[in-house]
Specification:
27% of the residues lie in helices and 32% in strands. By secondary structure, it is α+β, with helices and mostly antiparallel strands. The protein has a single domain, classed as Aminopeptidase, CATH 3.40.630.30. A seven-stranded mixed beta sheet has the order 1-2-3-4-5-7-6, with helices on both faces. A hairpin with a 2-residue loop joins β6 and β7. The chain is globular.
Length: 181
């Protein structure tokens, strides 16, 4: 069993190393594309890293917050993560966006489901009503995992991206955490 803990902003450099290693797998067999990034641009860019780091420190009762959890292998290296963040649009404080990643060598071991359970429980306890995500439609393993964890597809944009000569669709999925008012 992997250790899953909140991402401490002081450990952000190790997280950046993990995410860059993970993104190097984007577009490669066997999993294919899991981010809408060209192979040549599959990096955790410094400006994105800075925004992510700053969002971790924002309070939940305002815009631009983010919370993240990481899983570590027995050697202590980060091997997976899940993050929740505020929607950028106003009047969406009852919802958040979910992102996650699991290194190729750690997949199909239940780690993704454990991360999703943790994030869902945290969101529910925090009082959020919905989790939303977007996933590349061709990422069948991720779509299946999200469905098993209760997410429902709410729309798809076929041919949303054309990356490295591939046409990729984008599927939006949501999970209700409680009854609507």
């Amino acid at each position: 069993m992997k250790s899953i803990t909140p991402l401490d902003p002081r450990d952000f450099d190790a997280f950046s190393v993990y995410l860059n290693l993970h993104l190097q797998e984007n577009g490669l067999p066997p999993s294919g594309y899991f981010q809408p990034l060209a192979r040549a641009h599959s990096v955790f860019a410094p400006e994105r890293a800075d925004a992510f780091r700053q969002a971790l420190q924002r309070p939940l009762d305002g815009p631009g917050w983010r919370r993240a959890w990481v899983a570590r292998d027995p050697a202590g290296r980060i091997c997976a993560h899940v993050d929740l963040r505020a929607h950028p649009e106003p009047h969406t404080e009852h919802r958040c966006l979910l992102g996650m990643g699991v290194r190729q060598d750690q997949r199909r071991r239940g780690l993704g489901a454990s991360l999703l359970t943790l994030a869902t429980d945290w969101a529910r306890q925090t009082g959020l009503a919905w989790l939303d995500l977007q996933v590349l439609s061709q990422n069948a393993a991720a779509v299946a995992l999200y469905r098993r964890c209760g997410f429902a597809a709410v729309g798809e944009r076929p041919d949303m991206f054309r990356i490295d000569g591939h046409s990729l669709g984008y599927t939006s999925m949501s999970l209700s955490l409680k009854e609507c008012p």
